[in-house]
Specification:
The chain has four helices and no strands. It is mainly α.
């Protein structure tokens, strides 16, 4: 991680940008999502990744599944408050 006086690398900035896009994916308009998926097939300066769209969809689904599971566990976990348990 760069110190406060160093500029972060482009790679690190792109990692943060990519993570931010994934975190906001569900709120993006469908047209923006489609454009991002099409552009992922043609990123100048990066070697193409075979079936990148499929890999992106798998990543988004894994993230959505993990979010759903975390939400489910949080609402079904036993409460530690005795008043809630009836003791």
């Amino acid at each position: 991680m760069p110190t406060s006086s160093e500029r972060p690398s482009d790679e690190l900035i792109f990692q943060h940008l990519g993570a931010a896009v994934v975190l906001c994916w569900a709120q993006l308009p469908p047209g923006a999502r489609d454009q991002i998926m099409r552009q992922a097939d043609d990123v100048i300066g990066l070697a193409p990744i075979p079936e990148i769209r499929t890999e992106i969809v798998k990543l988004l689904l894994r993230r959505a599944k993990a979010q759903w599971l975390a939400a489910f566990v949080s609402i079904t976990a036993p409460r530690s408050d005795p008043a809630i348990r009836g003791h």
